[in-house]
C-alpha cells in the first residue's frame, strides 16, 4: 500500500519519520509532502499541484493522510493524486455543506473548535519548545519529546484557509481522533467526523501527534482501514 503524508501547520515533514519507518517495516511505501512555508497566497489547488509534483510516479492510488490543519487541503490533494482513501488525523474538516471557510469557522465557533489555552497561547508552540511539548507532546516519553520539538515548524496557508470549501470528497474516509488532544477539541472532531464525513471517528489515547507518540498503533489503524485484496487461494 502507498501512503502520502501531509504535515500540519505546526510541524515539518520530518515529524512523520517514525510512522514512515513503521510502515516501511511492514512492506508499505510512505512519502511525506513538504509544503512551502513562505507562500501564504497559495490556494488549496496550488498545494495539491505541489504535492502531486513532489510525489510524481512514486505512488499508485495512495492513501492520503492529513494531520491537523492540512485537513483543509486534503480534498484537493486527494483529487490531484487520485487517492483511494482519505485519513483525517486529528484534523480540521472543511464545512462542505455549510460553505464556511476555515477562517469563518474560527471566528464563529472558535471556542467549540479549540480550548481557551490553545486559542490564547497555541501560536507560541512553533516558537517555544516548552509550549510545543505542552500542547503537542505531553503523551510522549522524554526522549521522544526531545526529538519531537526539533520537528516543529510554522506552516500557515492563509489564502487556502479563507477559501470556500470544495464539495465533499467521494473517496472513503477514516478519522483518527486522539482523546487527550490539547489543540483541537475532541468533542468538535467527533462531531465534524460524523456530520461532515458521515463516519464515526476511531478514537485512541494520547495527544495531537499520534504519528509521533503512537506510530505502531496508528500504522495498525491505517492498514486495517484499507480493503484487503481478494484471496488467490483456490483450495
Describe the structure.
39% of the residues lie in helices and 12% in strands. With 235 residues, the chain is of the alpha/beta class. It has one domain (2-224): Rossmann fold (3-Layer(aba) Sandwich). The longest helix is centred in the N-terminal third of the chain and has 12 residues, at 44-55. The chain is globular.
Give a brief rundown of this model.
With 235 residues, the protein is an alpha/beta fold.
Q: Could you outline the blueprint of secondary structure elements for this entry?
A:
Layout: E1 2-6, H1 17-25, E2 29-33, H2 44-55, E3 63-67, H3 74-80, E4 85-89, H4 102-113, H5 116-121, H6 129-136, H7 142-148, H8 158-161, E5 173-178, H9 186-197, E6 202-204, H10 210-213, H11 215-224
Parallel strand pairs: 1-2, 1-3, 3-4, 4-5, 5-6
Helix pairs in contact: 1-11, 2-3
Descriptive keywords:
single chain, 235 residues, alpha/beta, Rossmann fold, six-stranded parallel β-sheet, 11 helices
Category by helix and strand content:
alpha/beta
CATH homologous superfamily (4th level) name: Alpha/Beta hydrolase fold, catalytic domain
User: Unreliable runs, pLDDT <50, ≥5 residues?
Assistant: 229-235
Distance between the termini: 26 Å
How many helical stretches? Answer: 11
- CATH class descriptor: Alpha Beta
SSE string: EHEHEHEHHHHHEHEHH
Overall tally of structural domains: 1
Shape: globular
